[in-house]
Design a protein that fits this description.
With about 100 residues, this protein is α+β, with helices and mostly antiparallel strands. The chain is about 25% helix and about 20% strand. It is built from four helices and six strands, in the order βααββααβββ. It has helices at about 5-10, 15-30, 55-60, 65-70, and strands at about 1-5, 35-40, 45-50, 70, 80, 85-90. It has a two-stranded antiparallel ribbon. Strand 2 (about 35-40) and strand 3 (about 45-50) form a beta hairpin. The two termini are about 35 Å apart.
């Protein structure tokens, strides 16, 4: 998918293009690489990484409508806006990688 972000519209909602992309990546994979969160067990002192993401089943059966409605939230906002309100989403063809064996 290609996201053509309307920077002006995103800015009006308190979002940067990076915020938009980070929200989409977090929804589809996890927040582990973008904004890792940790919980410290008060009894043992062990750190546990917490991740947030859609389930594999949800991602695997996601429709274009679902994708367009991925929720985005600006840091300073309590409400969310759907991805489609700040980005035009264009399906794109990419070359397939062929695996050959010798």
């Amino acid at each position: 998918m290609e996201l053509n972000i309307d920077r002006q519209q995103a800015s009006l909602l308190g979002l940067t293009p990076r915020d938009v992309v980070d929200n989409v990546i977090t929804a589809l994979t996890s927040n582990g690489m973008i904004a890792p969160s940790y919980w410290v067990d008060p009894k043992t002192g062990n750190n546990y990484m917490l991740t947030v993401q859609y389930s594999n089943e949800k991602v695997g059966s996601m429709t274009m409508s679902d994708f367009r409605n991925i929720p985005l939230r600006a840091t300073a906002s309590k409400s969310y806006t759907p991805l489609q309100s700040v980005a035009r989403i264009v399906p794109m063809n990419t070359p397939r990688k062929w695996i050959t064996t010798n």
